# Entry
Amino acid sequence: MANKNERILDYYKAFGLDRSWDEKTLRKELGKAQRTFMRRQSTTNDKEELDQINQTLEILDKAIECLSHPDARKSYDKELDKAYSDALAQVEELE
# Structure
């Protein structure tokens, strides 16, 4: 989780997820995205693209860990709401 004045990545927006979904559905959708990036990882020869894919897979791992467990998700959602109210939330476009 983010420290005071540290930006937090909005996993919902970054991966096109609906915040009303349950943990099982979120895990399923994140798993689909993870498989897509793993396929891209195994087929690319471009080092820059591979680095970007690896970074995205790391973020996906964190999102799965955070959003697929009820207590962790509740804490993340609370922190995300606070970050938006403090203008600290960050949304990255992931390919």
